[in-house]
Specification:
The chain has 175 residues and is of the alpha/beta class. Helices cover 32% and strands 26% of the residues. The protein starts with 8 loop residues before the first strand and ends with a helix. The protein binds guanosine-5'-diphosphate (GDP) and magnesium ion.
Length: 175
Amino acid sequence: EYEHEKIDYVFKVVVIGDSAVGKTQILSRFAKNEFCFDSKSTIGVEFQTRTVTINGKVIKAQIWDTAGQERYRAVTSAYYRGALGATLVYDITKRASFDHVARWVEELRTHADSSIAIMLIGNKGDLVDQRAVPTADAVEFAEDQGLFFSETSALSGENVESAFFKLLEEIYKVI
Ligand code: GDP
Ligand code: MG
């Protein structure tokens, strides 16, 4: 859409979190406004891009997706290198995926730049009747750790756009 415009900045963003929380679907929703019903688990490290305008600047978000290496400590430091932002995703219907968020924050603190902006995302917000993680628990954790927070649904698209824009705006503020 911005083919002929000059890119002012490229922001690398990494998506992390347990397997099956919806990382790839959130990314596809943001990058292509798609939700794929028969998606296979991701093979190979890949990224998707979307170019947006923030404060009149053309910013290419280069968003990296894990390649099924979500096992603890299997994501390598190369994945985090140069990342200015991270979306840390859990599934609101899977308590364990939220309990593991602290480990993922630890991973970021170990491997990523200390100034990285982090957006905690509780995904599958469309499955409220199966909710296992109260919003208040996540809000408290996010405040405690200095993370931004949003609940999204990659399926309906709810809040996906606003969560990524918030993160990109925060990155823009500090670069
Ligand atoms: P990843 O392993 O974290 O990349 O997870 P995927 O993006 O592959 O999604 C895992 C499963 O959850 C798939 O069956 C998706 O269709 C499903 N899923 C992802 N996001 C949502 C969502 O927002 N709502 C619902 N109901 N299902 C979702
Ligand atoms: Mg995936």
